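Known limitations

Structure tokens in this collection are predictions and should be treated as such. Users comparing against experimental data should check residue numbering before alignment. To illustrate the layout, the record for Acetolactate synthase-1/2/3 large subunit is reproduced below. The input appears on top and the generated tokens appear beneath it.
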Amino acid sequence: MQASDLMVQCLEEEGIEYIFGVPGEENADFMMSLEKSERIRFILTRHEQGAAFMAEIYGRLTGNPAGCLGTLGPGATNLITGVADSNMDRAPMLVLTGQGASTRLHKESHQVMDVVHMFKPVTKWATTVWHPENIPEIMRKAVRVARTEKPGAVHVELPEDIAKLPTDKRPLAVHKFRRPVPDDKAINRIFERIKNAKRPIIIAGNGCIRRRASKQLRLFCEATGIGVLSTFMAKGCVDMDAPYCLYTIGLGSKDIPACAVDAADLVICLGYDMVEYHPKLWNNDHSKEVIHIDFLPAEIDENYHPELEAVGDLAHALWMLNERVAAEPNALQFDLSQQQAVRRDMSEELAKHKNDTTEGLIRPQKVLWDVRQAMGAHDILLSDVGAHKMWIARHFQCHEPNTCLIPNGFCSMGFALPGAIAAALVHPDRNIVAICGDAGFMMNVQEMETARRLNLNITVMVWADNAYGLIAWKQDNEFGRHTDLAFGNPDWMKLAEAFDWHGHLVENAQDVESTLHQCFAESGPSLLVIPIDYRENNLLTKRLGELTCSI
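Generated tokens:
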């Protein structure tokens, strides 16, 4: 067999199910080899960026990497935005690119660029296959590195002449190992500090959405009553209906849940990355005593300098704490009244506009209330990037982990439509809703054809304001005005018809939930467009600017 056949066999051995991408001339041998696979499905996309976002969402939902594929030069550069998004948001991914023949890489040559060095800053590891005999070792390492906490993207480049070379090597067997666990003494010190606290609070980051970690966190909170603030990416780590769920932090402005941090005498950070919500926003005066428990040591800065730290498998660390709580059931005596007040006040805030009956522009709060009512506990919402993301982060709460997927580290627009395609492939039995601004939706609008070709049951909701609304919001906050950020849009219903999607335009707030149910009942993809009332953006800024934590 040839080297490209061996690479495909290695991917099969690793359990890779999907590769998304756009083939090219320099990866033709790999594509011919992939076509023979009965275990890996190749999904042809309309742009490499869409392919990378699809692979990212597959990784976030399953914990296993999918591949995204591009050729050399522009194929590789088109991938990089989605790859960077995946890597910064801790999603396992394999990035597979072709390359020109190794005999021409030392000189100026058609479409040749140093792809590996381009990908190194946005991946955990990037390498070139220079000899077919190295393929089994490279692919075993690539998948293992991608999966290892914290997960991320790995890039493997295969030059076209190396792909053709003969080889008699075979894939390496896959061995999986338990993650290292925290030190007993570290957990003992942390438990002693928790026992001495009066108003402890938990900030849960993206590490808490792993199934085992979420389970142990819920058990810990049920036993202790300690409240949980979730970052955007940790939504659903605890059930939104649990009394210890204090909803979400992450807005640039101080919000009601942040009042619970102000009142806390101990902040327990679990699976938390600084990129999710910088500690200068909640510990600017350095007054908070911080405990860090995560798969990796803390990233230190002047606002995040933990007093205690436990490094290792997060779920196991929480299990160790639960064992200690069970052994001393009467040792924890907390004053959680301020957290209960936060939950009460934020619950009222979320429900404030649930009965809106406006026509024309519809408030974000009303839309998200109805979306939550229409969706089941295990259904999946994906948020693109824009002003709508801030509203989703604040107003859409979750029952289960990995049911609200938000790009938050690299924060790339164009994420939600291709991401919904991957979500529907992973969970065809669930309702999948992507919420996009009109700007972000148009950045990968070509993937509407991919969704139609695959006949996927997804609903894409576009909040239309004919402008870059988030930028306008931020400029208004800083300068009191904004630059020209307006643009035109297509006739949305004609666009849906052109791609053979179902199309719906909702202009009455009373029709949002019923139209969503109609979309869920339709076979194939549906486009739901809502003229959104982004006057609420500056109104929210004003209210939050006047917020006082009196609890």
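For this record: The first strand starts at residue 18 and ends at 21. DSSP finds 21 helices and 18 strands in the chain. Please report discrepancies through the issue tracker.
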